[in-house]
Hints:
Layout: H1 2-9, H2 16-49, H3 54-62, E1 77-82, H4 86-92, H5 95-115, E2 119-124, E3 127-132, H6 141-145
Antiparallel strand pairs: 1-3, 2-3
Helix pairs in contact: 2-3
Amino acid sequence: MNLWLFQAHSLVFPLATVLVMVLLAFALNMSYGYFVESRTKRGLAQLFGTYVPPELVDEMVREPERYSMQAAMRELTVMFCDIRGFTTLSERMEPVQLQALLNTLFSRLTHVIRQQRGTIDKYMGDCVMAFWGAPVATPDHAHLAV
């Protein structure tokens, strides 16, 4: 640009190089910050996305610096939900019927637990273990669990 101004209009613009370098440095800095931050958010979403409901992951991605895999002491509410008499029931049912029953039950429980901001820890046979209050701190975790 400086060369063109000099050749076309006999103008000298001595700050052109400095301004271009400042703008280029600014653009590179902003790009680097954007990509590093988005990578951190994607990493957090991948890390917790398997275990934590998508709604809570979205909340966590807004402030990724507050969440890590580091252990912490915190009060939580834990729920174990088990089918009463499951062994007897399973002995009398066909495997396909039993699978359909468990799929229906687990689907409904999963929907309700996630709707109430809970995190499903695991499925153990006919039991579901879920907890409230982590990784996103929730002051009314016991109320949500009930």
